[in-house]
Write a structure and sequence with these properties.
The chain is mainly α and 155 residues long. The chain has a domain of 87 residues. It contains 6 helices and no strands. Helix 2 crosses helix 4. The protein is rod-shaped, with a radius of gyration of 36 Å. It starts with 11 loop residues before the first helix and ends in a 24-residue tail after the last helix. The relative contact order is 0.07.
C-alpha cells in the first residue's frame, strides 16, 4: 500500500505567481484564445452562401455561357442576404443541417434561373432561324421532280 505525501507549501511569492497563472489559464479557457490574440471574426452566413453559389455559377458558366450573365455576384449576394434574413425572422435552422446548403442555394436562385431559361430559349430560336435555308419562299425541287431537261416537273 502506498501513501502519498502532501506537496510542500510554496513560498508566498510563488503562491502569488501560481494564483496569477491559474487566473490566466481560466481566462484563456473562457475566451478560447491566448491573451492579446485577435478575436476570431464571426462568419457571415450570407457571404458563405453567396460564395457557394458563385462557385456553382462559375462551373455552370463553363457548360452554359449565359449563366454568369444572370447570376451575377450582386444577384447571389442579394439572394443569400434575403434568405438569411428570412431564416432569422422565422427561426429556420434546417439550412444549417447537412445537405441543406444545396437546397437553400436552389431556392435562392429561382428567379434568375427562370430568366436564364427564357434567354436560352430566345438564343436557341435565333440559331434555328439563322440555320434555315436562304431561299425562303422558293420551291425546293428534288431529283424526282426534275425531268431529263433539268426543268421541274409540272404539278
Amino acid at each position: 500500500m502506498t501513501t502519498e505525501t502532501p506537496a510542500p507549501a510554496l513560498p508566498p511569492e510563488l503562491a502569488e505567481l501560481e494564483a496569477v497563472a491559474v487566473a490566466a489559464d481560466a481566462a484563456i479557457d473562457q475566451a478560447g484564445q491566448p491573451p492579446g490574440a485577435e478575436p476570431v471574426p464571426e462568419r457571415d452566413p450570407a457571404a458563405d452562401l453567396a460564395g457557394l453559389a458563385g462557385l456553382v455559377v462559375k462551373v455552370a458558366g463553363k457548360w452554359q455561357p449565359l449563366v454568369p450573365k444572370f447570376y451575377t455576384d450582386d444577384v447571389l449576394t442579394e439572394a443569400a442576404t434575403a434568405y438569411c434574413e428570412l431564416a432569422e425572422k422565422h427561426g429556420w435552422t434546417w439550412h444549417k443541417e447537412a445537405g441543406a446548403p444545396e437546397l437553400r442555394l436552389a431556392g435562392a436562385l429561382v428567379v434568375p434561373g427562370l430568366l436564364l431559361m427564357l434567354a436560352l430559349r430566345e438564343e436557341r430560336e435565333a440559331k434555328r432561324e439563322a440555320a434555315k435555308p436562304a431561299n425562303r419562299g422558293e420551291r425546293i425541287v428534288s431529283a424526282a421532280d426534275q425531268v431529263a431537261g433539268g426543268m421541274p416537273a409540272p404539278r
